[in-house]
Amino acid sequence: MACLGEIPVALAEVEPHEKLVYDRTLQKKGTISDETSDKADSIHGGLEFPTEEELITLRRVSDTIPWTAYMIAVVELAERFSYYGANAVFVNFIQQPLPPNSTTGAGGLNGQSGALGRGQQMSTGLTTFYQFWCYVTPIAGAYVADTYWGRYKTVCVSVAIAMLGHVIMIISAIPGIIGSNASVGLFILSLIVTGTGTGGFKSNISPLVAEQYCRTKMFISTTKSGERVIVDPSLTTSRIYMYFYLFINIGALIGQIGMVYAEKFVGFWLAYTLPTVVFLLSPSVLWYGHGKYNTSPPTGSVLATAIRVWRYAMRGRWSWNPIKTIRNLSADDFWEGAKPSKVVGEKPAWMRFDDNWVEELRRGFKACSVFLWFPIYWLSYNQLNNNLTSQAATMSTHGLPNDVLSNLDPLALIIFIPLCDLVFYPALFRCNINFRPLQRITWGFYTGAAAMVWAAVVQHYIYKTNLCGYYAATCVDSSGNPLVSPLNVWIQSGSYVLIAFSEIFASITGLEYAFTKAPRNMRSLVMSMFLFTSAVASALGEAFVSLSTDPLLVWNYGSIAVLCGISGIIFWIVVRKLNSEEDKLNNMAEGRFDW
Question: Which of 324, 370, 374, 437 has its CB 3.0 to 4.6 Å from that of 533, i.e. a possible disulfide?
Answer without folding.
Answer: 374
